[in-house]
Predict the 3D structure of the following.
Amino acid sequence: MDRRPRVLSGIQPTAASFHLGNYLGAVRQWVEMQDAYDAFYCVVDLHAITVEYSPAELRRRTRRAAAQLLAAGLDPERCTVFVQSHVPQHTELTWMLQCLTGMGEASRMTQFKDKSQRYGESAASVGLLTYPILQAADILLYHADYVPVGVDQKQHLELTRDLAQRFNHRFGETLTLPNPYIMQAVQKITDLQEPTAKMSKSSSSPGGILDVLEEPSSLRKKIMRAVTDTGTEIKADEENKPGVTNLLQILSALSGTSVPDLEKRYEGQGYGTFKKDVAEAVVEAFAPIRERTEKLLADEAELDRLLVEGAVRARAVAAETVAVVKDRMGFLPQG
Ligand code: ATP
Ligand code: LTN
């Protein structure tokens, strides 16, 4: 039996490429955690249909997301990589958990409030409202001890813990309470053009977002044009210099040098040299991922085969949890 603590995380296939926030806030941690933890990582395609989408694009983006995860360093021999919709227990447990969730509780989630505002209250689907409950099911099915995510997901993790606790209280000790695993230094990478907002697949403008699969020349251009603040000092100050602070955090995360050390290194230098170094660090991190992603996408059959293998492993765990949950809740055995 595997005695390592369990980890689960998910990423939405809502764009053709991951961005720097996804990479630093999530994917890089996933890669680092795959040996010390018994790790399950999924492309959450069911979450991606909570907003307008096209079926052909979803199919393409799901494969691209999986390919990028493998290209970034997830190794199917060392962790389980799968597509959420391949494991029907995710939707099954969602229903059970929905019946334990209050209406008010669901409508208080800030991601729902943000997104429903963006799409218009009446255009927002019920799926968008229950999105965090599906996320809770993703996590609880695998008895995850830790969930590596960006800070924006903290509230969803709290809901997940509340639901697990409620279930256990009502039906007996069954589900594991998960802990968020949030890297302090990279909890929020912000938009290059609007450095107080998070870099986001769905709301950043093209100039504000750095895509993992983007051409190096375009990455360099965007970083050189990133909004910096008045003054010339290269100093972290989230309130008055959010643009420079974001770039410092990016360079620090990619180079392993602390922000104070970077501040010292760039003392007395202009924004130009600093930005050039940020650009080179980003290009260097993304170029090999881009190359490997293209290779993986060139052999769709092999990629699909790896995902089937991952789903088989995931389903074995998920089916066991659902069987226990159903029994505790009073459903008759299927024989
Ligand atoms: P959207 O903004 O369209 O909802 P997203 O860009 O946040 O999408 P997700 O698939 O929802 O992408 O997120 C995948 C992971 O990346 C999550 O763990 C999330 O916390 C993390 N993440 C997303 N954006 C950032 C960011 N700007 N900084 C740090 N982490 C981030
Ligand atoms: N809601 C998350 C994506 C997500 C997830 C999960 C993260 C879906 N299921 C399970 C961790 C664990 C997001 O928007 N980033």
